[in-house]
Every structure is written in structure tokens, then in C-alpha cells.
Amino acid sequence: MATKTLTPAAARRPVLDRLRRDRRAQLALPILLLLAMAAAARPFMTERMRATDTDNLLAGPSAQHLLGTDELGRDVLARIVAGALVTTEVATVTVGAALVAGTVLGLLAGYRGGWLDSLIMRMSDGLLAFPLLVLALTVVAALGPGLRNALIAIAVVTTPRFARVVRGEVLSLRTREWVSAARIVGVKQSAIMRRHLLPHLAGTLLVFAALQVSTAIMAEAALSFLGLSVQPPQPSWGAMVASGTDHLSASWSLSVFPGLAILLTVAAFNMLADALRDALDAHRPQLTPPR
Asked: Which residues, other chains included, contact 252 with Cβ-Cβ below 8 Å and sequence gap of 6+?
């Protein structure tokens, strides 16, 4: 019986349909949409997040301040909304940079092999030997505190994770018949990696990137909690949690609401990654090798 070949549009449609029906995606996507809207609203919140209400220091939720105020009388809700931009930068910049660098390194290591594979993997093993947060703290301590250096640190410590995942997939794919056929007819190695191997890595990388976003957000929040990422007076959810721990007896909301923002965002990315994995795994048997 002839095997039915799916067009790219037809191949994507079942994945999107499964994703749309998945309860986890239905819960995660509205949360991520709110995150994107909050990040986009940052320019409009600048004045409100800096305004101080000296008559309501460490006030609880009220009609005037829906989530209360901090120790300087600043609106907690406005600062949480403004801090969403930092989370969005972490999700896009650090994971995006690690994705690109790790994919290139993993492709080279897995397909070329030999001394290049050994060099890249030993360097990756050296970085992976340290806990992520400890290594990020080391990099930030060397570069100095600040959001830019925190983003660099998180990207550096996340890259080996992508490299190892890509290498493992490439080691399996490079023995396939269609890769051997491409080598026999004289296709360049760079073209094989770009046109034949990389498309088959897209699903795995998409799921893994969604998972690493959660890790990156937690790492940045931890660095902010320690005062090594975003510097005052700029808002950051981790820094807000740290500030609130000094005033828990006077105002519980100061730590709880930024903590909930971190929790919901991390949970949303994790749920989306699980939904993507199941949707792609269910559809993978129907996909055909590139021609």
C-alpha cells in the first residue's frame, strides 16, 4: 500500500488541532497572553510604577491599589505589570541565544564527530557539572550585577543543555538511509545539517525550549532576589519577593503577588511544553523523511 505523503500545511494541522484541544494548552495560553500584554504595557506604566503614595505605605489590597503598596508607597500591581517585561526578555533573549548556539554546537558535534565532538562535549560536561544557579552566580559575579549580565549568564549556562540534546538526536538521525543517500550524491555537509537534519529537530527543540524558559525565569528571579540582576528602582518579580520578605508581618501581599506571578508563568510554560510534546509525539509517525 502506498504511503500518503503529507504537505507541510497538512502535517502541521493535526498538531495544531491536538494542541487546541489540550486542556493544558487551554490553561497556559491565556496566562502567556496576559504576560505578553503586560510586557507591552510597560511604557504606559512607567509613571504609575514610580509614583509613591506616602499615606499608604505597606497597605494591603484596596480599591485604590488593587494589590496593595510596597514600603515606599508604590503600587504593587503596576510594578508587577512592569516587571513582566524582564520576564519576557529572559524568555526570548536567553533561551533564544542558547537555542541558536546550542543547536549549532550540537549539530557540529553530532554530525562531524571526532575531535570536534570530544571538544564540544567535554566543554559542555564541564559547564553541566555545576548547578545552573551556582554557575550563573559565578558568571554574574565576574561580569558584575545588572540585567544584561544576568541574561548573558543564563544564556551561557543554558547553551550546553541544548547542545547535548541536539547532539543526541543527530547521532540517531545521521545513520538514516536518507542522510546516507544525500552524502552519496555529494550533498555538502552544511546542506545536510541545514536541510535534512535541522527540520527533524524542530519539534524536540520547540518542546525543550519551552521547558528551558521556565528554568531561565526561575534563574533570573533567583538572581534578582539576591540583588544581582535588575537593579533598583527598576521592578523585577524576584526583587519584589526579596523586598517583601523584610515586611511580611506588615504586608503579606508584597511578596505573595510577585511570587504568584512567577509561579503562574513557570507553570504555564511547563504546561505548554507538555502539551506540545504530546501533540508532536502523537503526530510524528505520520511524518516522512525530506525528499
From this structure: 60
Q: pLDDT tens digits for 113-124?
A: 889 999 999 999
Residue-wise pLDDT tens digits, 143-159: 888 889 999 999 999 99
- Rounded Cα distance, 68 and 61, in Å: 4
Give the three cell numbers for residue 167. 547532539
CA pair distance 45, 79, nearest whole angstrom: 8
Q: Which of 200-204, 245-249, 287-291 has the lowest mean pLDDT?
A: 287-291
- Find out whether the peptide bond into 233 is cis, omega within 30 degrees of 0: yes
Q: Which long-range contacts (CB under 8 A, 24 or more apart) does 252-256 make?
A: 252/60, 253/60, 253/61, 253/67, 253/68, 253/76, 254/58, 254/68, 254/70, 254/71, 254/76
C-alpha to C-alpha distance for 181 and 157, rounded to whole angstroms: 37
146-170: string of b/e by CB count within 10 Å (b at 16+)?
ebebbbbbbbbbbbbbbbbbbbebb
pLDDT tens figures, 40-70 = 988 887 777 888 877 778 777 888 888 888 8
Measured distance CA(252)–CA(67) in Å, rounded? 10
